[in-house]
Automatic annotation (TrEMBL):
Polar residues bias: start-end ranges: 8-17
Protein name: MgsA AAA+ ATPase C-terminal domain-containing protein
Gene3D superfamilies: 1.20.272.10
Biased composition (Basic and acidic residues): 21-37, 239-251
Region (Disordered) residue spans: 1-43, 239-276
Organism (species): Halogeometricum salsisoli
Domain of life where this protein originates: Archaea
Amino acid sequence: MDEDRQATFGSDGSLDTETPPEAREGTTDWGEPKGDGETDGGYNRYDVSSLLQKAVRRSDEEVAAWAAWELARSGYAWNLWDRLHLYVVEDLRAGQDVALLVERYETLATERWDPQSWKGRLCAIHAALACARAQSSREASNADEFFRNAAAARAEVRGTDEDPAVDFPVADLDPDGPYDVIFDKHTAEGSRRDRGEGFFKRFGARVGPEGEDAQSARWQRLNMALSDVEYDEAELDHAVEPVDPEHRWEDPVTFEDEGGDGGADRSESGADGGGS
């Protein structure tokens, strides 16, 4: 399981799921032979690896830079880059560009240069500093754990009259429920309800809460005007109206013929109208 990846404590018999060989060759800074899992500075590389991730998570730039440098110079570059890549998916707010930077720094350090060399160590420091300066968040990890707990809670009461202690944010996806708008031509239920391009354009393709910019809205209105489905002005306006941030899924259907496309459909066969 993914959760086991961090259950690595050292070279004293603890579980180690990371398989690359130990960088034992050479001596410590004071000339003593290095032990298994020991860094040049005499630290346990598991401890330094954990320190690296905690430092970038807490935005401690200096400690993160040192930990990256210590791992890189000691022959544990693979551990360093594995930990930084784990950070960008476990502890980083989604959308941060640093995820791409880490990949680039690793390529430079490991494919163009020796990861233990001066250039390789600079790449390690750069990557650690970039991560420490990024916006940390446990949102993905917290979401994953919550969804797993909710799945277990739902399964526990399956077949009984009890409600789960916690549930998925969408509960049950039923037509005519809170998420009715998803049942358009891209789903079997939507097709059964004759919700074709007209329904999708008016409801399913709306964005928010920022809404379309002026150019995108202009293109959407032109596409609808040129479509085989006829739309009135109110329908054109609604299609590009921003979604209400307080009621993202409430999309009041006030147009004629709620179930179908509304208006006259001159020829809907072959009209795709974009993605789902």
